[in-house]
Prior knowledge:
Largest interface: A-B, 16 and 25 residues
Number of strands of chain A: 13
Distance between the termini of chain A: 34 Å
Number of domains of chain B: 1
Oligomer: heterodimer
Structural class of chain B: alpha/beta
Helix content of chain B: 25-40%
Number of domains of chain A: 2
Order of helices and strands of chain B: EEEHEEHEHHHEHEHE
CATH architecture of chain B: 3-Layer(aba) Sandwich
Order of helices and strands of chain A: HEHEHEEHEEHEEEEHEEHEHHHH
Amino acid sequence: MIVGITIITVSILVNQVTKETFSKNNPGFDAVVGAKGSPLQLILSSIHHIDIPTGNISYQNARKIIKHPAIKSATPISLGDNFQNFRIVGTNKSFLKLYKANLISGTTWSQPMQAVIGYNVSKITKLKINKFFVGSHGLIDTGDVHAEQPYKVVGVLKKTGTILDNLILTSLDSVWNLHSVTNKDKLEITSLLLKYKNKTSSFSFPRLINKGTNMQAASPSFEISKLLKLTGNAHRIVDYLSILIIILSFLGILFTLLNNINERKYDLAVLRTLGFSRWKLFSIILSEGMIISILGSTIGLIFGYIVYESMYYFSIVARSLELGQLNFLNDLFLIWIIVNIIAFITCLVPCIKVYKQNIRSTLLNS
Amino acid sequence: MLTCENISFDIDGQKLFSNINLNLKSQKDLLITGPSGVGKTTLLSILCGIQKPITGKVIYNKIDLYSLTESNVDEFRGKNLGVVFQNFNLINAFTVKQNLEIAANAIGKSSSNLYFELLDRVGLADKSHIKVTNLSIGEKQRLAVARAFVGDPKWVFCDEPTSSLDDKNADIIANLIKDESLRCKASLVLITHDSRIQSLIKFSKILKLGDEL
Lengths: 366, 213
């Protein structure tokens, strides 16, 4: 039972938190424009900071898109480095406004090589205002660092419960300077995060980009719903498996109790002769079964939560998943209740057997 | 007062006994005797509320035992009756003391002193932590007697308490039952075809099954 409940708990937590995180990480971007490749990869890397980017696009081309009449806002981002696995994102200050981010301390950047760090970054790396750090090449810490050009922390953000908590933000100039790009015509960014003026552009604008340029425009809502549909199927398989394990554990409880009762039927009959009423024995057997069930289901929930928390600490991907308002508690509590109601019904079988026991024939046969 | 009215019982349609009537006043003793197979143990089970008769009533001080629910019969038995079974019916996995504790627990009674006093009287004080399986037949019989008196019962039923004992142990058990019954001011109903016990306990009534009543 513990194994079944643990698996189903992890499945629910991951499922709920994934959906919640995907929704919170997107402050309303209608499209992401980036290098051609997998549109899902573009969305995951640019908004959720999970996957690697599809490539870079020319900043010059990007500026044309920014000026397009269909676009309400366009936020460029430039990825490429990390600090202790936290991604360093080159962007402009509108990025902070989009996420309604506020500073706990310090200010935003005013010149290159200044950085504003997210809440979790500050908590885990212990970076504070006026401290320096050096970024590593790539999106995973490989030890290959830009030692000659450190960043200075100028601001720390309040917790937002979004991906922003796990990012290090800096100006685009910082990223370009660090990678020694001086020719203005050769400036590149990773992607552009777009909001349309009018939702009707969501059909025409991507077509314009995808067919007329060497870039692609991907819709976050479309790609994420496709992803959730795929992962939803996997979740369902895991859920069925855990339900099967739970059913087997119910049968385990049932046969254990029936076997115990069979072995102890003489003792139970003796207890009746001593004055234990059959209701009292009924409640004792029921309690035995329910203690196993309640303990098993509770330990399973706790283990599930521990497994989930461990995933958070040991997986870079899971770092982008954050437990939100504990909405999942309702689901877990419901499962706990259902499991124990079924256990109660299962335990009634041996209890009824004890209740109906004929003490004289049991004692005679023993 | 224990009253039986027209008690009958049969097994698979074969009559075992019928129309048994008796009255037993408080603190009076009854001996039930008769050859093997006449239904002595069955009658005792009926009197204790363990086996419902085919017809008839068993009345304890105006309480019709079989008009109670089965759970209430169990509780009544625990609180008012003490039973020494022929094969003891002890819980073998328990120690001597635990067998007394569980009996006391059944009626909501609990006191360590009570157990030790009782075990002292039956001569098992030094064996309180020994498991039942390690006791001799005589010791098991003494423990069964001690357990029957844990709740200070008003009626005590003993089924062949001395049949498997030698003279010395039979003497000890008979005296023990007699003394404990006197202490509890209990009526004693005893089944035996052991003539030794009739010389040790003076019964105010004798019921011979299989003969004319």
